[in-house]
User: Fold Metal-dependent hydrolase from Vibrio paucivorans.
Amino acid sequence: MDPITQGLLGASLSQSFSNKQHLVTAGSIGLLAAMTPDLDVLIRSQTDPLLFLEAHRQFTHSLFFIPIGSFLCALVLHYLLAKKQGFSFKQSWLYAAIGFSTHALLDSFTSYGTQLFWPLSNHRYAWNAVSVIDPLFTLPILILLGLAIMKRSVLFSRIAFLWAVTYLMLGVVQRDRAEAAGWELAKERQHNPIQLEAKPSFANILVWKVVYETHNAYVVDAIRVGSSVKNYPGESITKLSLSRDFPWLVPGSQQAKDIERFRRFSNGYLAQDPTNELRIIDVRYSMVPNQINPLWSIELSPSATMGTHVEYAVHRDSSSESRQLYLDMLLDF
Assistant:
């Protein structure tokens, strides 16, 4: 989730356990502690472009790291914010732990994937219930926290947290509706999917990108689940085959290892880019949900040495045509 939303949710829960005298300070500690786990984005390498993919939402987002991470936050925030307000260090640590604990769980409701049980497991939990940015989720929390401070009442903070939980549960319901519609669409095509996932499109829980895997291809569709269900049939692409698509790739080379790293990150949803035969794309994400137009990819080089890494690229489809297609689905035009 975006850092602002993470901070606001952490503040709402920390304030929910405070009183009106401690409301502002408890909320400030919870807000800053809840944003802290995303400092893992600073873990990067100039020579290994995939390192940040592996490090993001890893150890700082593990449930086992909450006591350590929140303690480090408390060490700083107690002396910056809380001590002058008469807080004990235990109180500061408590509010930091409450705020810090919301981060990984909220991230798990998105579709990126969060390693909740690292180092015991490298599995990325992605419950696909909410977009990484969703104003309808964030703005009510912001307004209610503002009221909590103005009115000096924890009631509004508790309502803010309740709204967050309610919206996430609604996202789960919407996801299940989209998946059910996706299975039905595949059945109509006489497809028998190996696996199928529904992911919220950008900033809403109305329009979903449904991706399913057949024996040799991935199929993507957009499905709008409002009062009724509406399908927007999409595209398909052949699944990646290294022996077919990259016959020159040397097994055991760094590029081959990087493909496997990217495969784990992408949950296997890989294909060769039809517009660039040296590029491997993550099929799961696109701006227009019924298109195969990736948000990120890796690019190989036939002339690379055994120790050379792949190149990583982020693609931002911000064309007016794509925006209009997306809005037409969202607004049901």
Notes: The first helix runs from residue 3 to 16. The mean pLDDT is 97.
